[in-house]
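Request: When convenient, would you put together a sequence paired with its structure tokens?
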Amino acid sequence: MLGDDDVIFIVAHADGGMRLDKFIQSRLPGHSRSFLAQQIRTRNVFVDEVAHKPGYRVRAGEKIHIVIPAPQPAEYRAEAIDLDRLHEDRDIIVINKPPGLVVHPAPGHATGTLVNALLHHCPDLAGIGGEIRPGIVHRLDKDTSGVMVVAKNAHAQECLADQFKQRCIRKTYFALAKGRFKSNQGIIDLPIGRHPVHRKKMSVRSRRSRDAETHWRVVIQYKAAAMLEIDLKTGRTHQIRVHLAAINHPILGDPIYGGRSTLRPKPEKGLHIKTPRQMLHAARLTLRHPVTGRQMSFEAPLPADMQQVVAQLSAFSNTTETGALKNSTLI
């Protein structure tokens, strides 16, 4: 007996030889590929009542029976949390995430997260991945501020996820990093994986790692730190923080990767510059709209706490924000 959400297709002669996962994706374009692949893995897809792997080649005349589970309401509750919206349409919402805002609920952060805010702001979000939840396709750490894009339906989620996977989305950051740089720009090409001992940390000395590439440029060199403009070519967990720490220039205020929260350029004079968090800001995000295909770029100015640290560094170094930083629309 078929349930309300069960569907059946008969393989046409022209579709013979197609992979099972590709076949059901072509028949159910309203569902994301990741969701449909999950249904195959959990044995919710049958070929003549037999479960197969995604790579199975279908044959003409075979009956494909797909059991589509009803979306399960997320356990998260909607909360009236203000969002700084940079752009919104029927498919995506782009926000300027403030520092201190956790993206996903987790132990210790069950409420007050971006997900809670999105559920309140967009109560009609489509079910993605079998759950009724916002389509977050990338994340920023709790204490990293800046631009984030969120999908509002399955098609947008799949398209944006593909753009991230294909590295078509450009992400530009500003970071305040410790020390004086010997060159004005460089590339850090070190693989990143889980730390071999501290499992909550990432490391360039992991036993199992993935390629990671970070391009950096010094915008202003202060006496004790530098403002960097950073382009990510990959998007590994904690990538910028890990890479800068690996070249002995950790981000100021990073408690995990060596950036002290208090910078002492001249301790004998009692000069202390306090950083309330890791000084990392996602300044610009450039992507292709998932429906119109139009190239779009979104920018978020430096938040007040980071501007304050910049002002202190400038005063100590007797510098002004000249060049790219001063002329940038991001400041």
In short: The chain has three domains: 6-70, 73-165, 170-283+301-327.
